[in-house]
Design brief:
The chain has 626 residues and is an alpha+beta fold. The protein has eleven helices and 35 strands. The longest helix is centred in the last third of the chain and has 19 residues, at 602-620. The chain is globular, with a radius of gyration of 24 Å.
Length: 626
């Protein structure tokens, strides 16, 4: 019997690529520490993203940076609210400099606080309890290690706070003293070290074995500096929130979920105490630890549909900046004005990230799960094309990067683009993805091109068995690890796919692992443990590398690459393109010389999606914009 859900109707109008992949209207807002000003990213006259700021009560915002290249992608308020801080590299080389700009003076006041050639700056900590300084990591001494410095955002003066002794992360207390650090070891384990002050010796507080190390994440000291919040899966399958006494070593479990990792923590802006946690199940769920916040979250949930994220809180904890993220509408940003003088909490709408999408026929995102061939339960998301029914659809298997991350519910431009063009968008949190406990993540160890790839194939077979997917019209698509998976699908199981799209894709695991940037530090050792070692098992990595199976590729490929990508170098794409040319395999190669790992410049991003849309339409028969 045919249901209404399976009856095709008239397809909706095409949503222009310029709307989906052009610049957002406003994004990544941040509330000033005094709660009076708002900053966000928005296009400037140059057409690229820059920081804008102003008083939110009067809605008077103006650009305060003037980047005309790849734009500003990340920024923060200084802890005293006097400066906006942002990092910027050169054409994606990831040697980021830290800049400060006076929001009242505007772009002319921008100052490079780390004017060191070939050095990467990282913001480590900003704390309202020490508003005159911030903590930064700089690899001045050695490209592979980042020493910690306290930095005056007004004068640029640097003070060495801690010397990197093989650490991968710093933790500062409420006086911005470096009193915690993570130290990875060759066997894959990681220790959390602490010290009483910056002159005291380090001592081990918490040890995570190789299977627990990826989840180990300190969040910071509670005011007073004795107790420390951290995530750890030691002694459990999932990452739990712990509060550890740094003197006695006693750990208290503040929150745990038996099936999903705790992935975020909301802390009080002054005390540093944990008040709620984020657990990503099928949706992004907030779990309260402090019942005094119940009325605040009730007001937020009543204000708009979707999942709530708290983006920032002022120092007085009177105003919260929040985001409502749903699947079929642009993200909306609001202020929560907390209950005061006996009055109820109330919200105030600010803006959406993309007003041009409001009222468009966007698709719903549906969680699903299936059982892989070896019995492992795997989860993901389906986005069906509006007006096309659910029967034998052309399907794009959209593989996330990382791979140590996960897809999640909510608005995603690529999923909406594919659905609007008539494709079923299939997203899979294959083994190795995070969020589902350490055993699920560990199941992906040494399985690049192996069982991780099988999970993708099994997901397609599942949607074929349900009648949703036309098995003769399936594409595999992704960037970074997702690009590798697209190449692996084309090379190892070419009969599964009609075509493949791969961006910033490692083609040889040998050359990829051997060429990781020095700034990755311990990440290089983790790759060797979780993927394979070029030094001790080159044949294993050759067998898992699409480059060495290029003679088996029979399907058309679209390959995209940033010329200055330090993570997946252009040689990874070009050595595969050369093999495709020798084999006479149809392919298109898009090289963007002024991009890094991913396409940030608007003209490049739009050029890539135009080419990808034409490519998919040619091989799967979907719609495309002229």
């Amino acid at each position: 019997m045919t249901t209404a859900a399976t009856v095709p109707t008239t397809p909706p109008p095409l949503i222009p690529r310029s709307v989906l992949f052009g610049n957002p209207h406003r994004m990544s807002p941040a509330l000033s520490p005094d709660g009076e000003r708002l900053a966000f990213l928005a296009p400037a006259a140059s057409g690229v993203l820059n920081v804008h700021a102003g008083p939110w009560r009067r809605r008077e915002f103006r650009p305060v940076t003037a980047d005309a290249g790849r734009g500003v992608r990340a920024f923060a308020w200084s802890a005293d609210g006097s400066r906006l801080l942002y990092v910027q590299d050169r054409d994606g080389d990831e040697n980021t400099h830290l800049y400060a700009v006076d929001p009242d003076a505007g772009p002319g006041s921008a100052r490079d606080l780390t004017p060191f050639e070939g050095v990467q700056a990282r913001i480590v900590s900003l704390d309202p309890r020490r508003p005159d300084r911030l903590l930064v990591g700089l690899n001045l001494r050695d490209p592979a290690v980042h020493d910690a410095y306290r930095l005056d955002p007004v004068t640029g003066e640097l003070e060495l706070a801690a010397r990197d002794e093989g650490f991968s992360r710093w933790v500062a207390d409420d006086r911005l003293r470096v009193r915690g650090a993570l130290r990875p070891y060759p066997d894959g384990s990681t220790a959390l070290l602490v010290r009483d002050d910056e002159t005291a010796p380090w001592r081990e507080l918490h040890r995570a074995g190789p299977e627990d190390a990826p989840a180990l994440r300190p969040f910071g000291f509670v005011t007073g500096g004795r107790r420390l919040l951290l995530l750890s899966s030691e002694g459990a399958d999932t990452a739990r929130l712990l509060r550890v006494d740094t003197v006695t070593g006693q750990a208290e479990i503040l929150y745990e979920d038996p099936e999903h990792d705790v992935e975020g923590v909301g802390v009080h802006p002054v005390t540093g105490e944990a008040q709620f946690v984020l657990v990503r199940r099928a949706r992004n769920d907030i779990e309260l630890l402090d019942p005094s916040l119940a009325a605040d979250f009730a007001a937020l949930r009543a204000a708009a549909p979707g999942d709530v994220s708290v983006l920032g809180r002022d120092r007085a904890d009177r105003h919260w900046l929040v985001q409502h993220n749903t699947d079929d509408a642009p993200a909306g940003y609001r202020l929560l004005h907390r209950a005061d003088d006996g009055g109820p909490a109330r919200t105030e709408y600010l803006f959406s990230h993309l007003p041009a999408l409001e009222g468009r026929p966007l698709a719903r995102v549906e969680p699903f799960s299936f059982t892989a061939r070896d019995g492992l339960r795997v989860h993901g998301y389906l986005t069906f094309p509006p007006g096309a029914g659910r029967h034998r659809l052309p399907t794009v298997l959209c593989v996330h990067g990382g791979p140590w991350t996960r897809d999640q519910w909510g608005f995603r431009a690529e999923a909406q683009w594919l659905a609007n063009r008539g494709y079923l968008c299939l997203q899979v949190n294959f083994r190795g993805s995070t969020g589902y406990g350490k055993e699920f993540t560990r199941a992906g160890d040494r399985e690049w091109g192996g069982r991780m790839q099988d999970d993708l194939r099994d997901a397609v077979r599942h949607t074929v068995a349900l009648g949703h997917t036309d098995p003769a019209r399936v594409a595999v698509y992704g960037g970074s690890y997702g690009g590798y998976a697209a190449l692996a699908g084309a090379a190892f199981t070419p009969g599964d796919y009609r075509c493949a799209v791969a961006v910033a894709a490692p083609s040889s695991l040998l050359s990829f692992i051997e060429s990781v940037p020095a700034t990755w530090g311990p990440m290089a050792a983790m790759l060797r443990r979780r993927v394979g070692s070029p030094e001790t098992e080159p044949e294993f990595l050759r067998a898992r590398s699409p480059l060495f199976a290029a003679d088996r590729i029979r399907v058309p490929l679209l390959i995209g690459q940033g010329g200055r990508d330090p993570r997946v170098r252009r040689e990874e794409s070009e050595q595969l393109v050369a093999a495709l040319r020798r084999g006479g395999v149809p392919h298109e190669y898009l090289l963007f010389p002024d991009e890094g790992h991913g396409f940030v410049r608007p003209r490049n991003r739009l050029a890539f999606y135009a080419a990808a849309e034409r490519f998919l339409a040619e091989h799967l028969g979907g719609r495309h914009e002229a």
